[in-house]
Amino acid sequence: MPVMRYRDALNEALREEMERDERVYLMGEDIGVFNGAFKVTSGLLKDFGDKRVRDTPISENTIVGMGVGSAMLGLRPVVEIMTINFALLALDQVINHAATIHYMFGGQARVPLVIRMPQGAGHQLGPTHSHCFEAMFMHVPGLLVAVPSTAADAKGLLKAAIRDDNPVIFIEHEYLYGQRGEVPEGDDHLVEFGKAAIRREGADVTIVGISRMASTAEKAAKTLSQKHDIEAEVIDPRTLRPLDLDTILESVRKTNRVVVVEEGWPHGGVGANIAALIQEQAFDYLDAPVARVTGADLPMPYSKPLEQIAYPHEPQVVEAVLSTFRDL
Amino acid sequence: MGTEAQEMTNQDLSDPDVARAWLRSMILIRRFEERAGEMYAKAKVGGFLHLAIGEEATIVGAVQAMRDEDYLISTYRSHGHALARGANPDNVMAELFGRETGVSKGRGGSMHMFDFKNRFMGGYGIVGGNLPLAAGMAFASDYKGLDEVTVCVFGDGASNQGTFGETLNLAALWNLPIVFMVTNNQFGMGTALARHSAVTELHKRGDGFGVPGVRCDGMDVVDTYTTMREAIRRAREERQPVLVEAMTYRFRGHSMADPEEYRTKEQVAEWRERDPIVSFGRALVEQGTLPDGEQDQMDQEIIKRIDDAVAFADRSAFPPPESLYDHVYVLEGDSDSWYSVDERSAGVHRGEEERNLPASARGPEDAYRDAVTVAEREDATAPKPTEEAQGAPSTAESTEQPAQGGNG
What is the pLDDT of residues A3-46, one digit of tens each? Predict the structure, then answer.
C-alpha cells in the first residue's frame, strides 16, 4: 500500500471527488493561489481552475452561508476554514442554518456541505489558534462530525463526507498533517461514517481516543503492554456523529474498563458524553468508573512548557489506565 | 404610477388580467395576514407572528418582476412572500397552525415558510442570516450556467449585520446574479432607523461594496415593480448585483406582542393614508382598467378563500409524535450507529429508531395529547362576536382596523 502524508491523502480525496463529480467545488481563504495555509489544497487551482477552486475574502460566516445556499441548489461545496477557531465566526450559518434547514423546512431542502478545518495545540499559537471544538459541533443535531486520525481515514472519510447529503464538520489536526500512513490504492477508498476502527485489540481495558489522541492512545497501549502487562484495546470512533456506540460497548463488555482520551476541554466534552452513554448501557459491566483524559480546562497558553502540560500526552493516558486497576 | 412607468414594464397594466392579478395578490396577503392575526388571538397560532400588513406592494412588486425560475428568499416576515410566489394559502395557514400539512410540515412555523416547488427558498428567523444563503444560491445558478436570479429580501435592521457587508462584497466581487432588497419599514423591531443607522439612506450603503443602490416607493406596487425589474435585469444580463431600498411601513406592530411605544399614532395614521392596496385599486378604477366594484367582489372571493384555508388548517392533523425525529438527517441505507440520541426519558435510544418503537418506549406523551386537546377546544372557523359586530370590511379602504397594541 502506498504511504503518504495525511495532508496529501486529503488532497487526493479532493482531487478524486472533483474529477468524479462536477458539482464539487472548493471555497476558502487562501486555498488557491497560496495553495492553502496548510497546503491541503496544493495544486488544485492549477488543475481545476478558478471556477471550482475559489479564493475568498476573510468572511467566514458568509463563506459558510454561501456553501449552504449553493448546497441547497444541488452543488456539493467543500468549504475550508483556515483553523477551527475561525469557525466560531460562522456558527450562525453552521448551527442556525446548515444544521437546521433540512428539518426546519420539513425535509424539502438538503445541505450536502463539507466544512473542513484543522484544530489542535502544540505550535505555540496561544488562546485563539489552538483549541479543539469537536465536542461543540458534536453537540448539534443535524451535523455530522468526522475526526480522522490517520492518512487512510483522512482520505476515505473526506470522500464519504463529500458524497453525504448531510452537512459535515470535517475536523483535521494540525499535528497530523505531516504524519505518514498507508492509504489503500484506487479512487474507491471510502470510509463509512459511523464505523469505529479498532486500532489495537486487547482484553484488559478499552481506550477510546479522539482525533490526534487516537494515536497517543496507541502509543500508551504499547507502553502498557511492555511495562505493565496490560493489553489495551484502542478504539478510534472516527466519526462522533454518527457514533459507533456498539463497537465501544462491545469492547467495554469485554474489558470492563474504559478510558476516553481527548484533546479538548473536559466540561461537556466528548469523554463526558461517551461516559454517560456507557454507564447507561453497560453499567453492570464496569469494574471501575469511566476515566477521562482531557485537555486542561482553560484557554491554551502560549509559553511552551505551559502549553505542553495543557494537553494530554502518552504518560497521562498510561496513568489514567493504571488508575482503573487500583482498588476503589 | 404614471404612464411612463407603465411603458417600462414588461407586464402591461392596462391589461385588466394583469392588473387583476397584481391586486388580487396584494389583497390575498392582506386578508391572509388579518386572519392569521385573528387566529393568533384565538391561540390557533403560537410563537411569534410577524405580519406584513402595509408592506404588500414591496412583496408583489418584487415577485411580479421575477421569472418563475428565479429564486426568492426572505425573512421571518414571510407569509406574503410564500403566497406571492404561489404557495397554497391552505398550506401556509396550516404551517401557522403547526400541522403536518403545513408548507414546512409544522416544523418551521410563521418565521420559517418554504416552498421549493415555487422557488421560495425560505423565511429565516435570524436577522441577516439569509444574505449569505442568497449569495450561495446565486452562485449555484452562475456555476451551473443558468439564467436565474436570486432576490434576497431583508429589513432595515439586517443592514447592520456583518453579513450585509460580507455578502455584498462577495456578490460584487464574483459578479453574482442577485438583487438585495431592503424593505425599509423604518424600524428594526422597535428601534427607529435614525437610532440604529448612522447612514439612513440605506441604498447608499452598497456603494462601498461595489453594489449600486436605488430607492423605490415601497407603498407603490408599480414603482417597486419597475425598480425591481431593472435591478433584476442588471443582475441577470450585466452580472451586476444591485441594492434596492423599498421605503415602506408596517401598519401593525413588529410582532403580535408589541405595545408600539416607539411610534406615534399620528405617524401610523399618516402612512395608512398611503395604503398600497387602496391607492393601487383607486388608480386602476380611475384609469378605467378595472370597473368600479370589481375590487369589492375580488375581496369577497379572497375572504372566502382564506376562510377555506383556515378550515383546512383547522381540520388538518398535527404531526404524529413518532415523526419527531423525521428529517433531522438525510438517512439512506441501514446504519446501526447513533445519529441522534434520545434521552427524553428513561431508556436511551437512537432518535432515528423513533418510528419503529412502541409508544411506551418513547416515554410519556401526555404533553402532546394535552396540546392537541387545547388546540381542538375552539373551532377556528367560528366567527368571533366582535368580528360580527364590526362587520366584514367590504372595501379595501376599510381593510384595516386601527393599529392594535399588545394584542398578542
Answer: 999 999 999 999 999 999 999 999 999 999 999 999 999 999 99
Q: Could you tell me which residues are beta bridge partners of residue B253?
A: none
Q: Are residues B296 and B362 in the same domain?
A: no
Q: Distance of alpha carbon A110 from its chain centroid, rounded?
A: 23
Contacting residues for B214 by C-beta, under 8 A, at least 6 apart: B203, B227, B230, B231, B242, B243, B244, B245
Instruction: Quote the domain boundaries for residue B346.
Output: 319-394
Contact B139 A69 (CB under 8 A): yes
User: Would you tell me which residues 209-248 of chain A have a C-beta closer than 8 angstroms to some C-beta of chain B?
Assistant: 239, 241-246
Residues B113 and B259 in one domain: yes
Q: Residue A260's domain is classified under what CATH number?
A: 3.40.50.920
Residues B223 and B184 both lie in one domain: yes
Is there a contact between B140 and A73 if contact means CB atoms under 8 Å apart? yes
Q: Does A34 touch chain B (CB under 8 A)?
A: no
Asked, for residue B399, whether it belongs to a domain, the answer is no
Kindly tell me the burial class for residue B186, based on how many C-beta atoms sit within 10 Å of its own C-beta (0-12, 13-18, 19 or more).
middle
Distance from CA of A94 to the nearest CA of B (A): 11
B371 plus B244 within the same structural domain: no
What amino acid positions of A are annotated as catalytic residues? Answer: 60, 129
- Residue pLDDT, tens place only, B276-326: 999 999 999 999 999 999 999 999 999 999 999 999 999 999 999 999 999
Q: Are residues A21 and A148 part of one domain?
A: yes
Q: ipTM more than 0.85?
A: yes
Smallest CA–CA distance, residue B114 to chain A, in Å, is: 6
The alpha carbon of residue B377 is apart from the nearest alpha carbon of chain A, in Å, by: 26
Instruction: Using alpha carbons, list the distances in angstroms from residue B149 to A23, B175, B284.
Output: 19, 12, 30
Domain count, chain A: 2
Are B287 and B383 contained in the same domain?
no
Taking alpha carbons only, the member of B131, B171, B151 closest to residue B60 is B151
CB atoms B133 and A193 under 8 Å: no
Same domain, A207 and A153: no
The answer to whether A53 touches B116, Cβ cutoff 8 Å, is no
